[in-house]
């Protein structure tokens, strides 16, 4: 299933910028300006601040924990770690393009499409962050097997987003015909904002949903059952759900700052792995600070369990996801060569005694 092929994609002209798998919570960003610099510490790369974007979502666990525990601020010393919390992939890409943020945690679809729409000039993927955390949750009174999905209404977060492409590909593998644009066919695909999908599921407007965490666990809390865990469809149960991207201009002008953030990200992931319960609590505390509401244990616990932090961007799986979008008729073939620059990440990993990661042939020359 996974290939290191160098093919990738461009967006069909009629499609909007694709949103992140875990997005669907609006398009506005709220800035957290409460972080303080380390008193008397030198500035990193002479910068007053490094502006970091992420989503208030479990799939952005590294950024949530790194913010809450102060790991990024500690690494940056006298340079302020200034955070912006986004609700949708397009708004984060716009912020990166406008220079409102320098580095961002974001999913594969907006990263690919942001890169392609700019002609390969606006961003690089410089690291990985998370794998997994996506499920098909169904109403067990209407669907008890894969065969029962045929003829039903299944929600995905957005036309052409990562989960939409994944579901369309999975449906095609079952032999079902679905028009990607309209969502009509042997299965009806309902593009539904993640924040309203639980209500649609509760009222019976949809029979199931292929969604990321914590939406999947919210549906389970409403009585849904997991029919498919997307991780089970991938070799080693690994596929990219969140990457770290940086503007090419910032990467060129401030590589030391990018390296510092990447080092803090790697160290945050090690801390999460060593302290899973404390990390889960820290992530939930940051979610509450960002959104005003923490996740209940019945949602947070299974959502956290299904997600895995990783420094590896799992580039080959992004390549496969992209080719699935081509087959679905949502994207056209193009070249993503150069979307990855893992030089600084490999430097950080080497210093930590870890092996280098693979860019699947899609790195810079």
Write the layout of secondary structure elements.
Layout: E1 7-11, E2 30-32, E3 49-55, H1 61-68, H2 71-76, E4 80-86, H3 89-98, E5 103-106, H4 108-117, E6 123-132, E7 134-138, E8 153-156, H5 162-173, E9 188-191, H6 197-203, E10 208-212, H7 215-221, E11 225-229, E12 240-247, H8 248-253, H9 255-274, H10 276-291, H11 297-305, E13 307-309, H12 315-328, E14 331-335, H13 343-351
Parallel strand pairs: 3-4, 3-5, 8-9, 8-10
Antiparallel strand pairs: 1-14, 2-4, 5-12, 6-12, 6-13, 7-10, 7-11
| Count of runs of 4 or more consecutive helical residues | 13
Number of strands: 14
Residues in β-strands, percent: 15-25%
Point out poorly predicted stretches: 1-35
Mean pLDDT: 89
Strand line-up of the largest beta sheet: 2-4-3-5-12-6-13
Question: What's the main sheet like?
Answer: 7 strands, mixed
Radius of gyration (Å): 19 Å
Considering the chains and any ligands shown, give keywords for the structure.
365 residues, alpha/beta, seven-stranded mixed sheet
């Amino acid at each position: 299933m996974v290939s290191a092929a160098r093919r990738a994609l461009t967006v069909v002209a009629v499609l909007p910028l694709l949103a992140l798998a875990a997005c669907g919570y609006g398009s506005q960003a709220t800035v957290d300006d409460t972080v303080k610099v380390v008193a008397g510490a030198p500035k990193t790369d002479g910068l007053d601040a490094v502006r970091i974007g992420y989503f208030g979502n479990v799939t952005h666990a590294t950024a949530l924990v790194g913010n809450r525990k102060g790991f990024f601020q500690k690494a940056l010393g006298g340079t302020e770690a200034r955070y912006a919390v986004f609700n949708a992939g397009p708004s984060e890409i716009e912020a990166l393009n406008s220079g409102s943020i320098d580095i961002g945690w974001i999913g594969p679809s907006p990263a690919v499409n942001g890169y392609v729409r700019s002609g390969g000039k606006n961003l690089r993927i410089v690291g990985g962050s998370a794998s997994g955390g996506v499920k098909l949750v169904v109403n067990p009174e209407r669907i008890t097997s894969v065969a029962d999905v045929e003829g039903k209404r299944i929600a995905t977060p957005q036309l052409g987003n990562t989960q939409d492409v994944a579901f369309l590909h999975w449906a095609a593998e079952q032999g079902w015909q679905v028009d990607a644009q309209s969502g009509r066919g042997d299965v009806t695909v309902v593009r539904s904002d993640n924040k309203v999908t639980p209500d649609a599921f509760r009222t019976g407007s949809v029979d199931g949903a292929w969604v990321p965490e914590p939406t999947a666990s919210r549906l389970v809390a409403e009585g849904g059952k997991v029919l498919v865990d997307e991780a089970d469809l991938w070799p080693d149960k690994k596929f990219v759900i969140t990457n770290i991207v940086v503007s090419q201009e910032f990467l060129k002008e401030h590589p030391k700052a990018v390296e510092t953030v990447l080092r803090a990200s790697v160290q945050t992931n090690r801390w999460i792995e060593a302290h899973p319960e404390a990390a889960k609590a820290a992530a939930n505390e940051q979610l509450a600070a960002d959104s005003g509401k923490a996740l209940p244990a019945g949602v947070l616990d299974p959502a956290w369990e299904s997600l895995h932090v990783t420094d590896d961007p799992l580039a080959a799986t992004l390549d496969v996801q992209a080719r699935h979008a081509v087959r679905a008729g949502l994207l056209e073939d193009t070249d993503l060569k150069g979307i990855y620059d893992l030089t600084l990440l490999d430097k950080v990993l080497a210093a930590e005694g870890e092996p280098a990661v693979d860019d699947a042939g899609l790195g810079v020359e």
